[in-house]
Give the backbone structure.
Amino acid sequence: MRTRLTLLLGGLAVAIAQMSFAQDARMRLPTTVEAGSAFSIQSAGNGQATLYIVGLGQVLKRDVQLGESASFLAGSLTSAGHYLVVLAGTSTTQNGSFDVVSAHKPANLSFLAKPSRLPVGLHDGITGAVYVFDGYHNLIAAPTSISFELASPSGTLQKRLVITRNGAAWTVMDSTAQQGIDKFVARVDDLYSTRIVAQVPGDPCGLKMTAQQAGQQVRLVTDPVRDCSGNAVPDGTVVTFTENYNGAQSTVDEPLKNGIAEVEMSAHSGAAFSVASGIVMGNQIRWEK
Amino acid sequence: MLKSLLILTAFFATSSGIAFAQATVHVEPMNLQGPRSLPEETGRAAIRDYLQSWQSLSAAFEQNRTSLLDPDFVGIAKDKLTETIQQQAALGIRTHYTDRTHDIQILFYSPEGLSIELLDTVEYDVQVIDKDRVKTTQHVRARYLIIVTPAELRWRVRVFQAEPE
């Protein structure tokens, strides 16, 4: 019974002690410290003690004189987060806590742009997302104005101004009508990050071929193949020629070379020739000798 | 959303360890910014992996073993936590973190799908141990911003930062 009572009283004493630690008014602490800034902690009492500043981002330990101010130089605490302060003397312990917040000035942008290559003329085809960090790699949660700019070689500029929320900002842009290499820039003041976005021609548009006799064969040749914005479709794009004659069908796939595709097929009188590229159909020609 | 919460709770109840069972987890309704919708299963996986990271963190800080961070942390978060553990070891300090409650909100799913930002109002206990003597035990309530990014098999914590409430 005596043991139980002792344990109970002991537990109560610990609980009271911890409660008083949590409400300790003997230390004067900053509420917040900007990452990398100097700060000081004022303690009460006298004698020697050990000061601990403990967080998930950093840990400091220092011998101090109670009743004096412990000063920490700029650069002592650089990692944003919540820090406990423990001042352990020979007979007493003082507790407190404060926050280290990110520096105000952005120093790093983590900029993700996607895709790196896409067809021209896509509405909302390009996305960009940014996280903003200070010089100590802390996420800057305070609202920050980000300028997103997408510049095409023709001089077209799309610009969006976005305010970060919890350190993040995003935007959506259209790919322009002209093929080429675009620069996608995220900017805060004089800090910027650039990504390259290649805009390639879209699907062929208005695919057209002509036919002419070539010995016993008929030669089918496309006009220069272009997308709907007039950009040349790249060489290597496959064009499919089809001949239908007397219920039989034969097809030939040919890649574009120098912007056109050509092929020779059997010249049957009454045959029907068609051309296509992917899902895009071109014209049809009925061959009569 | 209630359904999501129930599913999440059920998931933790069935597949988590004892340490998970100690923490109470509440997931707030999604209030996403960004053009991309977040599939429910993806959100659940990100939160599950984030919560798991507290167990790694706790073990790593208690044992001063940075390698325990490897499965769950990457990038800035891993670098900072690793450095802190090295500081602890050099000073002869250990810390014991025990998470008690999590109140989590998914804030942002980046358009390209390569990051999710979470906000966690977390309550945890911290014990500071210097040369095997407990110097203090404190209960903390803090607001954490977390960015997780996908790895081969799981989401890993890339940014892990407490902010003033």
